[in-house]
Specification:
A 4-stranded antiparallel beta sheet has the order 1-2-3-6, with no helix packed on it. It has a 4-stranded antiparallel beta sheet with strand order 7-8-9-12, with no helix packed on it. The chain is globular and about 50 Å long. It has no helices and 12 strands. The N terminus is likely disordered. It starts with 27 loop residues before the first strand and ends in a 14-residue tail after the last strand. It binds calcium ion (CA) (2 copies). The site of one calcium ion has 7 residues, from loops.
Length: 145
């Protein structure tokens, strides 16, 4: 039985809500960044569809909350396993739009760093920007900030 240890002065104020059954947070991981370059921080989420298929959604920050989530990227089935990925945000291209970086764990301490560039139409497919030699970088031993 859930117990709320809430105080009325700490009541949460929602800036976005899904409809019931509309969003599974257990399949998601979240990032922040200004993905549309308007100066206001947005929220992105990876979504694990299963079968190695991953999507990236963005809620654009607005003065009074967030836009509805829109999918900005989708891998093919088997194309990207979210559970082997550590995502991060930053403007890696220097154009004023935050991009998404992704360390991808191939196992055996073999890791690649990808960048998905933010564009007005969504994120580009991940492009490899760095790769370790086999045994060179064990992402499982790194600590998430
Ligand atoms: Ca923004
Ligand atoms: Ca950028």
């Amino acid at each position: 039985m859930p117990v709320c240890l809430c105080h009325s002065s700490l009541a949460l104020s929602s800036k976005w809500s899904s409809y019931e059954g509309g969003w599974d947070s257990g399949r998601s991981r979240y990032l922040s960044g200004d993905y549309n370059g308007d100066g206001r921080t947005d929220v992105a989420a990876s979504f694990d569809y299963g079968n190695g298929q991953t999507g990236v959604f963005v809620w654009e920050g607005k003065a009074d909350g967030f836009s509805d989530a829109t999918r900005r990227w989708l891998s093919n089935p088997g194309g990207w396993n979210a559970n082997q990925t550590r995502f991060m945000s930053g403007d890696y291209t220097g154009d004023g739009r935050a991009d998404i970086g992704a360390f991808y764990d191939y196992g055996n301490a073999s890791t690649s760093l990808f960048v998905m560039e933010a564009t007005p139409g969504g994120f580009t497919n991940p492009a490899t920007r760095w790769s370790s030699n086999p045994g060179g970088w064990d992402i499982a031993r790194t600590i998430t900030f």
